[in-house]
Amino acid sequence: MKPNTRKLLLGLGLAATGYAAVYLLCTAPHQMWLRGAKPELAWLKHEFNLSDSEFARISRLHDAYKPQCAVMCLRIDALNASLTNLLAPANTITPEIEAKLREAAEVRVECQKAMLKHFYEVSQSMPPEQGKRYLAWMHTRTSLPAHKMAQALDDKSGSRAILPTMKGME
Amino acid sequence: MNDPSKDNEALHQILGQWKVGAPLPPRFQEKVWRRIELTEAQRKWTFLGAFVNWLQTTLPRRAIAVSYSIVFLALGLATGFWHGQQAASRLDSALGLRYVQSVDPYQAVRPALAAQ
Known about the structure:
The complex is a heterodimer. By secondary structure, chain A is mainly α. Helices cover 79% and strands 0% of the residues of chain A. Chain A is elongated, with a radius of gyration of 25 Å. By secondary structure, chain B is mainly alpha-helical. At the A-B interface, helix 1, helix 2, helix 3 and helix 4 of A face helix 3 and helix 4 of B.
């Protein structure tokens, strides 16, 4: 091998080594969380700067809420399935469809109440500033009606200034 | 063992006696020059060729070789940092979404749907 070729390869090797080292360093925490049992909670701990005791408390709340969430999922799925069956042959709103829609709305209210209760409990387990940030973040990302209405208003008026967004907080 | 210098002498003598009887093809010299010109015209300028040429002339100098290595290392580090930040940001968003899906039944990933 010519000395110049060797030097060229050495340069490329140095570049590749530098690239890999920095890339791995930047993504190392995420890779570590992904290897864990609950990556989403590890992310939450990092995102909201939680201490170990706060994280332990929030993990317990999360574990207690999960079965409730699973039950709600089953109810939503069952309602959606029966509503789909009712809607397939219909060309007008029958009393059965109306009743099912009412039931779906009730389930939605129940889900939202349970969700909000959980979010408040979690936010109260965080330092006050982080708790506020968490609530604002969850309001913009979950299926809470306030957010959807705010988003619709926002889209209509084209104004973002009146709406509480995460931009200032991130 | 054979003496190579004696062999060479004998070979030289034989080659000296050798006479080419066959005539050259018509316009032989002109054709040779044309092929040389064509080859030179085909050797186009390329970035890689110019870079390799530059390397061959400059790399023997130690200072340039060191600078070259530092530039390559810096390029690798900068690209790695940039890509690493992008990947970290993507993973952050994905994990945030995963958290939302774990607490919002209307966004939860259903096992039946996920398997499809």
